[in-house]
Amino acid sequence: MESEWFTAKQLTEIAPLPTTPQGLHSHARKSEWVRRMRDGKTIEYHIDSLPEEVKEVLHLHQLNETRAYYRLQPNDESTGAKLWDDVCEKIPLLQRKKLVELALLEGVNAVFFRLASSLTLR
Protein backbone atom coordinates (compact mmCIF):
# COMPACT_ATOMS: atom_id res chain seq x y z
CA MET A 1 0.00 0.00 0.00
CA GLU A 2 1.35 3.36 -0.95
CA SER A 3 1.78 6.16 1.57
CA GLU A 4 -0.33 9.26 1.20
CA TRP A 5 1.44 11.48 3.74
CA PHE A 6 5.14 12.37 3.74
CA THR A 7 7.36 14.15 6.24
CA ALA A 8 9.73 16.96 5.30
CA LYS A 9 12.66 14.62 5.96
CA GLN A 10 11.30 12.10 3.45
CA LEU A 11 10.63 14.78 0.87
CA THR A 12 14.07 16.42 1.16
CA GLU A 13 15.52 13.24 -0.35
CA ILE A 14 13.62 13.97 -3.59
CA ALA A 15 15.80 15.75 -6.17
CA PRO A 16 13.50 18.59 -7.38
CA LEU A 17 12.76 19.80 -3.83
CA PRO A 18 14.71 21.82 -1.25
CA THR A 19 17.29 19.73 0.60
CA THR A 20 16.58 20.94 4.14
CA PRO A 21 13.38 20.55 6.20
CA GLN A 22 13.27 24.33 6.75
CA GLY A 23 13.55 25.02 3.03
CA LEU A 24 10.95 22.40 2.26
CA HIS A 25 8.47 23.82 4.81
CA SER A 26 8.95 27.29 3.31
CA HIS A 27 8.42 25.94 -0.22
CA ALA A 28 5.33 24.01 0.93
CA ARG A 29 3.78 27.12 2.51
CA LYS A 30 4.33 29.15 -0.67
CA SER A 31 2.88 26.35 -2.80
CA GLU A 32 -0.03 25.84 -0.38
CA TRP A 33 0.47 22.10 0.05
CA VAL A 34 -2.09 20.24 2.15
CA ARG A 35 -0.52 19.42 5.50
CA ARG A 36 -1.30 17.85 8.84
CA MET A 37 0.37 17.53 12.22
CA ARG A 38 1.40 14.12 13.50
CA ASP A 39 2.42 13.53 17.11
CA GLY A 40 1.88 17.22 17.83
CA LYS A 41 5.14 18.29 16.15
CA THR A 42 5.78 16.47 12.87
CA ILE A 43 4.31 18.08 9.76
CA GLU A 44 3.29 15.75 6.95
CA TYR A 45 2.26 16.72 3.42
CA HIS A 46 -0.41 14.96 1.37
CA ILE A 47 0.70 13.43 -1.92
CA ASP A 48 -2.17 15.02 -3.89
CA SER A 49 -0.84 18.51 -3.17
CA LEU A 50 2.71 17.75 -4.37
CA PRO A 51 3.95 18.53 -7.90
CA GLU A 52 3.48 15.76 -10.49
CA GLU A 53 7.22 15.14 -10.90
CA VAL A 54 7.55 14.59 -7.13
CA LYS A 55 4.58 12.19 -7.14
CA GLU A 56 6.26 10.16 -9.89
CA VAL A 57 9.55 9.97 -7.98
CA LEU A 58 7.74 8.94 -4.78
CA HIS A 59 5.80 6.25 -6.64
CA LEU A 60 9.01 4.83 -8.16
CA HIS A 61 10.73 4.96 -4.78
CA GLN A 62 7.88 3.01 -3.15
CA LEU A 63 7.95 0.42 -5.94
CA ASN A 64 11.70 -0.04 -5.48
CA GLU A 65 11.28 -0.49 -1.73
CA THR A 66 8.64 -3.16 -2.33
CA ARG A 67 10.85 -4.96 -4.83
CA ALA A 68 13.86 -4.78 -2.50
CA TYR A 69 11.86 -6.57 0.21
CA TYR A 70 11.53 -9.62 -2.03
CA ARG A 71 15.15 -9.83 -3.14
CA LEU A 72 17.27 -12.69 -1.87
CA GLN A 73 20.08 -11.87 0.51
CA PRO A 74 23.53 -12.15 -1.15
CA ASN A 75 24.47 -15.24 0.87
CA ASP A 76 21.16 -16.93 -0.05
CA GLU A 77 21.41 -16.27 -3.78
CA SER A 78 22.89 -19.60 -4.80
CA THR A 79 20.55 -21.54 -2.51
CA GLY A 80 17.48 -19.69 -3.77
CA ALA A 81 18.50 -20.00 -7.41
CA LYS A 82 19.23 -23.71 -6.99
CA LEU A 83 15.87 -24.29 -5.27
CA TRP A 84 14.07 -22.42 -8.05
CA ASP A 85 15.89 -24.38 -10.77
CA ASP A 86 15.18 -27.69 -9.03
CA VAL A 87 11.49 -26.90 -8.69
CA CYS A 88 11.15 -25.67 -12.29
CA GLU A 89 12.84 -28.80 -13.65
CA LYS A 90 10.46 -31.12 -11.83
CA ILE A 91 7.08 -29.57 -12.53
CA PRO A 92 5.01 -29.36 -15.73
CA LEU A 93 4.84 -26.09 -17.67
CA LEU A 94 1.29 -25.21 -16.51
CA GLN A 95 2.25 -25.64 -12.86
CA ARG A 96 5.43 -23.62 -13.46
CA LYS A 97 3.34 -20.74 -14.87
CA LYS A 98 1.07 -20.88 -11.81
CA LEU A 99 4.12 -20.88 -9.53
CA VAL A 100 5.47 -17.77 -11.26
CA GLU A 101 2.05 -16.08 -10.90
CA LEU A 102 2.02 -16.96 -7.20
CA ALA A 103 5.56 -15.62 -6.78
CA LEU A 104 4.58 -12.35 -8.45
CA LEU A 105 1.42 -12.07 -6.38
CA GLU A 106 2.78 -13.00 -2.95
CA GLY A 107 6.47 -12.38 -3.40
CA VAL A 108 9.36 -14.75 -3.88
CA ASN A 109 10.20 -14.98 -0.17
CA ALA A 110 6.63 -16.05 0.66
CA VAL A 111 6.71 -18.75 -2.03
CA PHE A 112 10.07 -20.08 -0.81
CA PHE A 113 8.72 -20.08 2.75
CA ARG A 114 5.70 -22.11 1.60
CA LEU A 115 7.96 -24.53 -0.25
CA ALA A 116 10.34 -24.95 2.68
CA SER A 117 7.42 -25.38 5.11
CA SER A 118 5.78 -28.05 2.98
CA LEU A 119 9.07 -29.91 2.62
CA THR A 120 9.69 -29.98 6.38
CA LEU A 121 6.14 -31.19 7.10
CA ARG A 122 6.59 -34.33 4.99
How would you characterize the overall build of this protein?
This protein has six helices and three strands. With 122 residues, the protein is mainly alpha-helical. The protein has a three-stranded antiparallel beta sheet.
Short description:
This protein has 122 residues and is mainly α. 61% of the residues lie in helices and 10% in strands.
Arithmetic mean of pLDDT: 77
Assign a percent range to the helix content: 55-70%
The main sheet comes to: 3 strands, antiparallel
Alpha carbon gyration radius:
21 Å
Strand line-up in the sheet with most strands: 1-3-2
By DSSP (H or I, 4+ residues per run), the number of helices equals: 6
The tally of strands reads 3
Give the structural class: mainly alpha
Q: Calculate the terminal CA-CA distance, rounded to whole Å.
A: 35 Å
Q: Write down the secondary-structure element order.
A: EHHEEHHHH
Furnish the topology, listing elements before pairings.
Layout: E1 5-7, H1 8-11, H2 21-31, E2 35-38, E3 42-46, H3 52-69, H4 77-90, H5 93-106, H6 108-121
Domain HTH Mu-type: 2-66
Organism: Obesumbacterium proteus ATCC 12841
GO molecular function, one term: DNA binding
